[in-house]
Amino acid sequence: MHKLGLLGRNISYSFSKGYFTKKFESEGLPFVYENFDLENISELKTTLANNPNLIGFNVTIPYKEQIMPLLDSLDDTAQEIGAVNTVKLQKDGSLKGYNTDYYGFQTSLESYLKAHHKSALILGTGGASKAVAYALKNLGIAFDFVSRTPKANVKYTYADITEELLKHYTVIVNCTPLGTHPNVNQCPDIPYDGLTPEHLLYDLIYNPEHTKFLTCGDIKGATTVNGSKMLELQAEKAWEIWNKL
Predict the structure, then answer these.
(1) Which one of 64, 88, 130, 237 is the catalytic residue?
(2) 15 conformational bin, left if phi > 0, alpha if psi -120 to 50, beta if neither
């Protein structure tokens, strides 16, 4: 039986295993999906050796960028984004990296966009934020990153975000883990009083379905979207990649 899986750290909560297991059972497919919880990315080689029937895997926090030097090749899009969330084992045993996060985010966001959604703030600077930036660029939406500390290519720290500034950024995307179960009372430190019904808040988190970040947007009448549809879309795109000859 062919094996697929998810590679990450502290991933018992993950959506992917449940999603694919249900898919395989309902469609009668001869596949299993397993979590590979690695303390360090250096354990990848051993994991591959111990799972000879593995044909591909998803990659999540904190390895979307760390895995790239360990791969034999990259899809052009993954190369441009600078992060990988899907890996396929080629027929010759080599590893090729792809990014389907951008597709899931872009496709799930499009139907919510209005003419005034011209500029976005991306909260966080990890691998997922890079896919979000790539998707926003595809959609013609200008964006700037927000981080806890000053760093290259990051325009703002959270201390810089004011109610006045939020008038200029009507799309706000949370790419941080703040608010993920069980830490449901956490949220990014932005001035939520500056939000209006013109704003669109998108949270990549899917557990809980409605985070404190989104609830704060609801209170101000903003449009709010969680990451569940993005996850389904990126998962199906990964499945498509694994099944290509």
Answers:
(1) 64
(2) alpha
For the stretch 155-201, pLDDT in tens is 999 999 999 999 999 999 999 999 998 999 999 999 999 999 999 99
Q: Do 110 and 182 have their domain in common?
A: yes
Residues 126 and 222 in one domain: yes
Per-residue three-class SS string for the chain: CEEEEEEECCCCCCHHHHHHHHHHHHHCCCEEEEEEECCCHHHHHHHHHCCCCEEEEEECCCCCCCCHHHCCEECHHHHHHCCCCEEEECCCCCEEEECCHHHHHHHHHHCCCCCCCCEEEEECCCHHHHHHHHHHHHCCCEEEEEECCCCCCCCEEHHHCCHHHHCCCCEEEECCCCCCCCCCCCCCCCCHHHCCCCCEEEECCCCCCCCHHHHHHHHCCCEEECCHHHHHHHHHHHHHHHCCC
- Regarding pTM above 0.90, the answer is yes
Structural domain ending residue among the three candidates 49, 67, 99: 99
Per the annotation, the verdict on 64 as an active-site residue is: yes
Cβ atoms within 10 A of the Cβ of 1, count? 8
Q: Structurally, how many domains does the chain consist of? A: 2
Do 107 and 223 sit in the same domain of this protein? yes
